[in-house]
């Protein structure tokens, strides 16, 4: 009887969360799918009509889509490469006995807490500006011509900015994983005559593999929808050179007011993210069983 | 002899670690320093690092020109509001799932997490239109609602992983002693759950404070939190580096300090318990 009661209580306690999340998931997404089949522009209210797959056809055959898709992949892959390699190296470094280790760690993780708009504007103006930026000054004083990051290599600039934000995250997680490596195992390997390189490849890296997987998956989810950094630095330009899918959908919706087209783009973005999410959920699901 | 080598190595590693740490931190430090310069000094070449006339005028100027503290209080309202409402909804759910797990609890948890994977642009259009029709665009209430919803899965997950670690035996002992549900919650569970709830609170305030998709798209002037306010510096008039730096310093300082305190929880919260 008591168990029956407490089971009902448990259901009631979970219900509000489930209902809210269910509504949050179903209603807007359902509307997006519905809009994606309409010809619907906010500038021409009252002219909505069924458009079939036309929005998808326009969105997917628009050359901007292919550019945005490639840029999205470039941002994800570029930032992942920098943060994983850099993160492993930094984690190995911070795992050593360093004087003032706590403070160094605080310095390294700080960028993660800076809001994206601040990060992007500080880098854009105070570092990457070709006239007044610090990087330009460095280049000039070394006798080079200053590089105009955001005009000439906008995508690389965005990758650098976003990588600076996410390197601390990768470092922190990999360091946490590294510190759970059994000290005795390391000593045993050393006793057996394993050099630092083989210790790294045969002991440390396998131990880190799960943490690396988690970092890759979580970062990918966030990196697929990098937005603020693009909005305040390049506005997706020049041309579409630094437009990703998230920014393309935003531009279509709130700059061109094309609800139908933007919704089709949104559905495409959801499908792409779901493919990634499938892997992430499987990886996390495994840890639930453990 | 061996000892001598290891001391040298220790110093070597220390120097490299500090150099890299300072390099990573440098953009923040530079922003901080620039916030005390005059606008002319801020773009001077060669740049001055420490030896210039330090001034507080940018801070005064930012507040005077753009009512900085209104945006600051919007950020506080939205991040604390969404986190607290989220906790009120999530604590019972996480409690029930941790202590009364049913057959489908695991699936339910995975499903909740999956809502987090939906890219925001996928629902930008309908949310924007719904907000427009309900008059919620550029309102603090609207932003609080959205952030509550996007934070809810993370809050539930974090609480769940913390509650999971509370030994069930204790609850059973309390039940044996005849403690009712409310007494159980009040006297047994709460004291053990408070640290987990506090960490969840901290991490979510940080995430909500820095959220920059919905805040940028759904707020303009009145309800603009700091993310949106700072973004307005992307199309500036005249010299603005020092003022941008002052506004940025004030926007990131409180959260940086909270973040430094929450390092450990951060790992666990952001990996959904997969790395501890």
From TrEMBL, chain A:
Protein's cellular compartments: Cell membrane
Gene3D superfamilies noted in UniProt: MetI-like
Transmembrane segments: 12-37, 64-94, 106-123, 155-178, 211-232, 264-284
Pfam family, one: BPD_transp_1
Location, primary (coarse class): membrane
Bilayer topology term: Multi-pass membrane protein
InterPro entries: MetI-like, MetI-like_sf
Gene Ontology CC terms: plasma membrane
GO process terms (BP): transmembrane transport
Keywords linked to the UniProt accession: Cell membrane, Membrane, Transmembrane, Transmembrane helix, Transport
Domain ABC transmembrane type-1: 69-280
Family that this chain belongs to: Belongs to the binding-protein-dependent transport system permease family.
Descriptive protein name: Sugar ABC transporter permease
Protein's organism: Pleomorphomonas carboxyditropha
TrEMBL record, chain B:
GO biological process, one term: transmembrane transport
Membrane topology category: Multi-pass membrane protein
TM ranges: 12-33, 76-96, 108-131, 143-163, 184-209, 240-261
Pfam family name, one: BPD_transp_1
Compartments, as annotated in UniProt: Cell membrane
First-listed, main subcellular location of the protein, grouped into a coarse class: membrane
Family of this protein: Belongs to the binding-protein-dependent transport system permease family.
Protein name: Sugar ABC transporter permease
Species of provenance: Pleomorphomonas carboxyditropha
């Amino acid at each position: 009887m008591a168990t029956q009661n407490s089971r009902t209580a448990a259901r009631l306690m979970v219900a509000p969360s489930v209902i809210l999340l269910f509504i949050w998931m179903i209603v807007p997404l359902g509307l997006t799918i519905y809009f994606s089949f309409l010809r619907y522009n906010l500038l021409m209210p009252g002219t909505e009509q069924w458009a079939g797959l036309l929005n998808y056809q326009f969105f997917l055959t628009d050359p901007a889509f292919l550019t945005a898709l490639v840029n999205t992949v470039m941002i994800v892959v570029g930032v992942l490469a920098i943060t994983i390699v850099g993160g492993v190296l930094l984690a190995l470094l911070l795992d050593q006995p360093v004087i003032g280790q706590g403070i160094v760690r605080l310095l390294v993780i700080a960028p993660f807490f800076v809001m994206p708009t601040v990060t992007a504007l500080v880098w854009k103006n105070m570092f990457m500006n070709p006239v007044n930026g610090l990087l330009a000054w460095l280049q000039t004083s070394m006798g080079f011509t200053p590089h105009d990051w955001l005009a000439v290599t906008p995508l690389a600039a965005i990758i650098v900015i976003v990588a600076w934000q996410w390197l601390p995250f990768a470092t922190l997680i990999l360091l946490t994983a590294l510190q759970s490596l059994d000290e005795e195992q390391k000593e045993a390997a050393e006793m057996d005559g394993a050099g630092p390189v083989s210790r790294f490849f045969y002991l440390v890296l396998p131990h880190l593999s799960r943490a690396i997987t988690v970092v890759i998956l979580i970062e990918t989810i966030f990196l697929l929808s990098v937005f603020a950094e693009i909005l305040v630095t390049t506005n997706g330009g020049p041309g579409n050179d630094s437009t990703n899918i998230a920014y393309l959908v935003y531009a279509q919706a709130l700059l061109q007011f094309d609800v139908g087209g933007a919704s089709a783009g949104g559905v495409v973005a959801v499908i792409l993210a779901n493919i990634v999410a499938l892997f992430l959920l499987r990886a996390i699901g495994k840890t639930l069983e453990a | 002899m061996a000892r001598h080598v290891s001391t040298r190595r220790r110093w070597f590693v220390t120097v490299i670690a500090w150099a890299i740490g300072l390099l990573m931190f440098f953009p923040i430090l530079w922003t901080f320093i620039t916030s005390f310069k005059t606008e002319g000094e801020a773009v001077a070449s060669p740049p001055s690092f420490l030896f210039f006339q330090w001034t507080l005028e940018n801070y005064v100027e930012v507040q005077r020109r753009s009512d900085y503290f209104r945006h600051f209080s919007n950020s506080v309202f939205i991040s604390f509001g969404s986190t607290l409402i989220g906790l009120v909804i999530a604590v019972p759910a996480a409690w029930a799932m941790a202590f009364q797990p049913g057959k489908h609890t695991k699936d339910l948890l995975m499903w909740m997490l999956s809502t987090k994977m939906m890219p925001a642009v996928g629902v930008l259009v309908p949310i924007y239109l719904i907000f427009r029709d309900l008059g919620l665009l550029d309102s603090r209430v609207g932003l609080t609602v959205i952030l509550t919803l996007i934070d809810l899965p993370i809050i539930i997950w974090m609480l769940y992983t913390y509650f999971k670690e509370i030994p069930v035996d204790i609850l059973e002992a309390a039940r044996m002693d005849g403690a009712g549900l409310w007494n159980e919650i009040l006297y047994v569970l709460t004291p053990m759950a408070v640290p987990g709830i506090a960490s969840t609170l901290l991490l979510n305030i940080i995430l909500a404070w820095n959220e920059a998709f919905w805040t940028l798209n759904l707020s303009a002037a009145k309800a603009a939190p700091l993310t949106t306010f700072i973004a307005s510096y992307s199309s500036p008039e005249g010299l603005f580096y020092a003022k941008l730096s002052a506004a940025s310093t004030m926007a990131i300082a409180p959260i940086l300090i909270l973040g430094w305190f929450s390092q450990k929880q951060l790992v666990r919260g952001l990996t959904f318990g997969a790395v501890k």
